[in-house]
Write a structure and sequence with these properties.
The chain has about 210 residues and is an all-alpha fold. About 75% of the residues lie in helices and about 0% in strands. One of its GO terms (cellular component) is membrane.
């Protein structure tokens, strides 16, 4: 009988793949950045997301790394990965960022995913209860994000509009945001601002702001 971790991990893989398949313009970087940015206009909420998103990804990788392997891991690779849902999810994120943003920034996000996966593997090896501690970190991260949206953004999170788009885009979005704050990617930021403004006007017209 599958464990709770197996059910959670492979359900997450299935949801990511199935909802991505139905997402329009899946590899349209500007569209996705505008989508996510329109839900994060408040400065405090942005800081909360910057602090929480990558730990959320790392913690879910810890949980999924405890899932049952699909196949034996080659001996040479055993210290680096397990052939299970954690590796599949890390591969999905890496491949998506490289395909979505064909620049050094896409490679940077993919590299950050690999670092997160390596940290997850180290966490699994070092912690006495890795799944429990990861679940606590994950839960606190979500609570902080929902608080940010409720108290500061005053709008429901992006995942209520498009679950896969929000989850897949979030880590890359905060990396791009950090780069913009440091003075990089100014042209990209300027190009998406009209799209963001249009989406925000739509929220206002619909009475969701």
């Amino acid at each position: 009988m599958p464990s709770a971790v197996d059910v959670f991990s492979w359900s997450l893989v299935l949801v990511l793949v199935s909802t991505s398949a139905t997402t329009k313009r899946l590899f349209d970087l500007e569209s996705h950045l505008a989508f996510y940015s329109s839900y994060h206009r408040n400065a405090v909420n942005r800081v909360i997301h910057l602090a929480c998103i990558w730990p959320l990804l790392a913690s879910v990788l810890v949980i999924c790394d405890a899932s049952t392997p699909l196949a034996p891991t080659p001996t040479l690779l055993a210290p680096l990965l397990r052939m299970n849902a954690g590796a599949v999810i890390a591969a999905i994120f890496c491949a998506y960022y490289i395909a979505l943003d064909r620049s050094a920034y896409g490679l940077a996000s993919a590299s950050a995913v690999l670092v997160s996966y390596a940290l997850a593997r180290a966490w699994t090896a070092a912690a006495s209860q890795p799944v429990f501690t990861a679940a606590c970190v994950h839960g606190m991260g979500w609570l902080a994000q929902f608080a940010g949206h409720a108290l500061f953004e005053k709008r429901a999170p992006a995942l209520f509009e498009n679950f896969a788009q929000a989850l897949l885009m979030a880590p890359h979005f905060v990396l791009v945001e950090a780069c913009v704050a440091l003075g990089f990617r100014a042209q990209l930021a300027a190009s998406i601002e009209p799209l963001v403004a249009r989406r925000v006007r739509g929220f206002t017209a619909a009475g969701t702001r």
